[in-house]
Design brief:
The protein is mainly beta and 189 residues long. The protein is built from 2 helices and 10 strands; from the N terminus they run H-E-E-E-E-E-H-E-E-E-E-E.
Length: 189
């Protein structure tokens, strides 16, 4: 019986020996969105304060768990008046809903360095399943930090009204569809 226990422990340790945590390099990363105004022009915005990590034991990230948290009070569209409105109860209600979160539930390899990431997105107190497309570069050693580094470019679409955001705004004023974009570097460890 002891031999079976030792073998099981060795297998568990060897399977977890390759487990890696990747932390976002905030100086080289961006979490943003695009929405259409008056059916004519696209308005870009971003969350200035966010954190992200990836846990994976495979180099193709097929078993990865992605975690992202953004502070709603950090929303920035390069217009102070619009940003204040977006933080208000009409939209994100930052006082009651201080964060937007995403946690992946599955990852599917769709091509060379391409993934489909499915997960739970929570905004405005509502959680919905979303699918995101991702492309990654690396991993490769960071020339200055001397640690493995990987870059991800992620995009997807959500409906703002599914989350109760800006529900009183008709689509003629603001598109219901919002494009989510993220571009970032992650370092191992």
């Amino acid at each position: 019986m002891k031999k079976v226990t030792v073998i099981a422990a060795a297998l568990f340790l060897s399977a977890n020996a390759f487990a890696q945590t990747w932390n976002v390099d905030k100086a080289h990363s961006k979490l943003g969105f695009t929405i259409t105004h008056l059916m004519m022009s696209d308005v870009d915005g971003k969350f200035q304060t966010f954190d992200a990590s990836i846990n994976s034991s495979k180099q193709d990230f097929s078993d990865a768990v992605f975690n992202i948290t953004a502070q709603t009070s950090s929303i920035n569209t390069d217009n102070e008046k619009r940003d204040a409105h977006l933080k208000s109860p009409d939209f994100f209600d930052a006082a009651k809903n201080p964060t937007v979160t995403f946690r992946s539930t599955s990852v599917t390899v769709t091509g060379d360095h391409k993934l489909k990431i499915t997960g739970d997105l929570t905004m405005h107190g509502v959680t919905k399943k979303v699918d995101l497309d991702a492309t990654f570069k690396g991993p490769a050693p960071h020339p200055m930090m001397k640690k493995p580094n990987v870059g991800f470019k992620v995009s997807g679409k959500v409906k703002r009204t599914d989350f109760g955001i800006g529900s009183s705004m008709p689509e003629a004023v603001l598109s219901d569809e919002v494009v989510i974009t993220a571009n970032g570097e992650f370092q191992q460890g």
